[in-house]
Each structure stands twice: as structure tokens, then as C-alpha cells.
Amino acid sequence: MDSKSQEIVRQQNKQRQLKDDIEAIKKKQPTYIIGFILFTFLSFYFLEDKFYNFFGNSVDFFITGIIILGLFCLFFIYRNHLTINKKDKEIKVISSKLYKLMKLDTKDTNE
Questions:
Q1: Could you report the per-residue pLDDT of 11-63, keeping only the tens digit for each?
Q2: Is residue 109 part of a domain?
Q3: Which domain holds residue 30?
Q4: Are 84 and 25 in contact (CB under 8 A)?
Q5: Torsion region of 99: left, alpha or beta (phi above 0 gives left; psi -120 to 50 gives alpha)
Q6: Domains: count for the chain
Q7: Residue 110 lies in a domain
Q8: CB under 8 Å to 65, separation ≥6 — which residues?
Q9: Residue 94 lies in a domain
Q10: What whole-number distance in Å separates Cα of residue 28 and Cα of residue 37?
Q11: pLDDT level of residue 107 (50, 70, 90 thresholds)
């Protein structure tokens, strides 16, 4: 193989790896969110007595927990969105490099 075809294969592998990373992020995101929701409900159950004096009543404890849960979920989704967009941009750059590498040189054949 010449260096041009090796570069094409290397870029294709890098592009495929980035696409696989994006799919993995999209698959894991709901699992992490559901896990944190379960963790929040378990902490409501086990820590309600201990934090009763700190929050004043259980309603404030639930409201605080739901706000923290919502903020965590929003932050997590936003961070994943930024990561996916960054990887998509890298994929587009690689695609343009691959296009430039694979396009036919018509100058040489016409001269």
C-alpha cells in the first residue's frame, strides 16, 4: 500500500471510532440519568430523618432533592451534547480530508 491509501485507512478508522464513541454516549446517557434518579429516591428514603432538622420539614427536603436532580440532569445532558457536537465536528473535518485524499486528480490525465 502506498502512503495515500494508508492515510485513507487511518482516517476512516479514526472516523469510525468517533462515530462509535458518539453511539456509546447516546446509549449510556439514559442509564446514568435513571441511575441518578434512583440514587436520589434512595437518599430521600434513607436520609429523610437525618436531614429533617437541616431542611425544616420533608417538603423542603424533597424540593431541594428535585432541584438538585433537575440541575444534574440538565448539566449531564448539556455536557453530553457538547461532547457529541465536538466529535461531530471532528467527523466532518475527517470527511473533508478523506474527500480531498480520495478525489481523482484530473489535472494529470488532461495534460
A1: 999 999 999 999 999 999 999 999 999 998 888 788 777 777 777 777 787 78
A2: no
A3: 25-102
A4: yes
A5: alpha
A6: 1
A7: no
A8: 40, 43, 44
A9: yes
A10: 14
A11: low
